[in-house]
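Continuing the batch. This is chain 6 of the set; chains 1 through 5 are on the previous pages. Same settings as before, nothing changed between runs. Recording input and output for traceability.
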Amino acid sequence: MTTLAPDLAERFRTDGFAFPVNALTPAEAEQALAGCHTYLRTVSAAGGALARYAAFPKIHLVASWADRIVHHPAILDAVEALLGPELLVWSTNLFVRPAHSGSSLAWHQDAVYLGLDGYQQHAARVWVALTDTTVANGTMRYARGSHLGGALPHRFSGSGLEDIMRGEEIAVDIDEAATVDVILNAGQCSVHHLAMAHCSGPNHTDAGRFNFAIDYVTPRVRPTAGEDSALLVRGADPGAFLPESRPASDFDQAALREFYAAVARRQKRIDQTVLGRGGKPGGDPARDGAQDRAQDPA
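Output for chain 6:
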């Protein structure tokens, strides 16, 4: 009773990714995209921490459209097939590549920024397409099997503004013959290992690309240092994470209190991770969204 076929589960283990996984129906994807647009307008008008953390890392704590996605049975069934029956949502991220955006992101791994122990076997990122994702609109590219080498060294490829905006790049050559473009219809998703090397390109189309990413972990994952929190979505064991609660409604007072506490806690940990790598505090946990900061081009 899972949307992830056995061959895709094997591909996740060997290749480091699996797609396409059928998740949201077309109607659900359309509804989620509309909710996303409303959410972006609301947080932009509110300003402050809501605007600063609009794209990461706890969208699901204040937005009902995001809460519905992280609890979607088809997605949870797929992740359970990979990680087992005890599942927590550690982070949610919104990646927007506006129409005719020249932004691109260098080859990198998510794992080096997250400060998590146990992610190698007990975590996965689900990348949900709220719009179609194509080469033309700058979809992700995976480097097949790159997760097998664990966390790789990263560096900036140059000192120019464009190099800095593209982000840190894996300091190892990528075999272009092993790369795969993540082509999805709205409502479908891909699942990848947190050590999967990936990049993305510019959007040459007339429409924005919207993707919602969910980091699922099991109780066997632990923060490398400091307190952290997560939302239990299947099973009963929160592991080392402080428990989070679902929002009763969009931006209700209890949800806002939980959101502010959770993002402050997470940013403190991310800063520790970034400083440990020789970076500067205030680093972006959703580094894929560095240029694609949450905005609503509609």
